[in-house]
């Protein structure tokens, strides 16, 4: 059944997600903070809204996917934010990776308008977004989860209900901590082996023959070997997620010693101007320190 | 063709490796520093030697798999060490994970007796050793590698030639750095998510649906969820490998910031008396700090 959808945030992930919904025949109004990203959506029949409030005024489904907690707060509670026009009975699906604590606050504000809120963080990068094959980690009321499922199914292939508000994000922060660390330490290992004289392709064969084989490093290795860091997921956003995870660990009294080191490495790489590249560019930070290149 | 093999080191890995060779019909002499581990080998027809020198006096193949650099040096250059009896033309296969620098020195000493040396570090844990399905990372002369292949094939399913002396070990240290970190950060992520309220089995489903899926964490997760830390690979040895990797990084001028954090976590867990448990027991160190248990 076609829905009336307000879609806010047309970045690397949001753009292909919104296009999938437009192609599926929904009535879309889209908004992006910086203009110039709406052309493809307009061509696909979406209305370009002038503000978040304008995007959601008729919507029974609202989808938000913006960069950080501050951006979500601005979209929701700022001037011309969605709280001004959000309809009672609407479902807000927030796929931004933000603080679980901020997300719970947004859920309360939505409830004050009679709307429901799901935190619905995604994994699968640009690639998964384009193919509609994202994995969603979802927190919120179970009934709202069930009601949102028809739309969620058009965006992803897997939808995991994690529990109450904020628990999708809690899972996502844990998952990104794991994934960011896997990529970073893969790069540390390859820089060490390469400097010793082991060819990267031989080292890769070893990893792929061992239990250290992982989906993310299988995917990133060819890009690392080519030095191609076109962003599937920008390093600056991975760094942001690591800071969120550390902040969340702090709030809950969970010491995370390795996360502590990993996030500083990503921050250092970002400080060197690598933030807009894919997060696999972390290898170049390590390469430059070691004076060796992991290239085939 | 049956070979005359001197086998030194009957630990978690050495015991099943030696048994596989005995079952394959080779003439085996075995030595272990602490006695009481030779019964199964004796029953399988092996001669129990009184010293490393005694174990290798007739051998054309020597296999060493002991715990650290000092143990290898003792076996090779100590009183009644193999240098006293090593035959010219023999091939020494050292599967211990030790310093690549120490290994190169051992290769030179073997050469002074007319023998060849391969560093042939393994991965695959007890499980792989029992099934003859280890992966070997091998450094040394290519011709020696080829000559040793019939024996190596009876111990493992994959044999990767990494280059000259020490490069098998270089690859192994990189591989274990990656693997130890993957397990540690998997545990950090699960402790964070569990404390927030996400069920461990839900978190596992998320990881397994994402690119963060890895062989080692798929293998360890059920043990972590049960709290079963029967050693496949003891935590104290993983810690030792991490210290070796860091030392090797230092020697080569390769900064390894995340390894630096990871090895301290393993050392702290070892200091708490967890060294004899499987290295997945790293989760209990993190659980105790956070006051939560990742159990299903």
Tell me what you see in this structure.
2 copies of one chain form a homodimer. Chain A is built from 13 helices and 8 strands. Chain A folds into 2 domains: 161 residues, Rossmann fold (3-Layer(aba) Sandwich), CATH 3.40.50.720; 121 residues, N-(1-d-carboxylethyl)-l-norvaline Dehydrogenase, domain 2 (Orthogonal Bundle). The first copy, chain A, is 54% helix and 14% strand. In chain A, strands 3-2-1-4-5-6-7-8 form an 8-stranded mixed β-sheet, sandwiched between helices. The first copy, chain A, is an alpha/beta fold and 296 residues long. In chain A, strand 2, helix 2 and strand 3 form a beta-alpha-beta unit. In chain A, helix 8 packs across helix 12 and helix 11 runs antiparallel to helix 12. The mean pLDDT of chain A is 97. In chain A, 58% of the residues are buried. Chains A and B meet through strand 8, helix 8, helix 9, helix 10 and helix 11 of A and strand 8, helix 8, helix 9, helix 10 and helix 11 of B.
């Amino acid at each position: 059944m076609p829905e009336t959808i307000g879609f806010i945030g047309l970045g690397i992930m949001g753009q292909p997600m919104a296009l999938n919904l437009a192609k599926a025949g929904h009535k879309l109004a889209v908004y992006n903070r910086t203009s110039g990203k709406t052309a493809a959506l307009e061509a696909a029949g979406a209305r370009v809204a002038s503000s978040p409030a304008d995007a959601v005024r008729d919507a029974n489904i609202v989808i938000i996917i913006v960069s950080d907690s501050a951006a979500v707060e601005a979209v929701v509670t700022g001037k011309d934010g969605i709280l001004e026009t959000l309809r009672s009975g609407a479902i807000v699906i927030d796929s931004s990776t933000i603080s679980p604590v901020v997300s719970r606050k947004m859920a309360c504000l939505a409830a004050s308008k009679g709307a429901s809120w799901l935190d619905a963080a995604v994994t699968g990068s640009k690639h998964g977004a384009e193919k509609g094959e994202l994995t969603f980690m979802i927190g919120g009321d179970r009934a709202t989860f069930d009601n949102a499922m028809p739309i969620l199914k058009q965006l992803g292939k897997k939808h995991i209900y994690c529990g109450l508000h904020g628990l999708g994000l809690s899972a996502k922060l844990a998952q990104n901590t794991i994934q960011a660390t896997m990529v970073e330490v893969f790069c540390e290992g390859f820089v060490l082996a390469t400097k010793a004289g082991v060819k990267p392709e031989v080292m890769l064969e070893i990893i792929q023959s061992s239990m250290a084989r992982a989906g993310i490093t299988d995917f990133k290795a060819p890009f690392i070997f080519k030095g191609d860091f076109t962003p599937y997921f920008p390093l600056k956003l991975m760094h942001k997620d690591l800071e969120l995870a550390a902040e969340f660990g702090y709030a809950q009294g969970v010491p995370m010693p390795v996360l502590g080191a990993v996030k500083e490495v990503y921050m250092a790489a970002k400080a060197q101007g690598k933030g807009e590249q894919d997060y696999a560019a972390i290898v170049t930070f390590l390469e430059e320190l070691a004076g060796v290149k992991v290239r085939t």
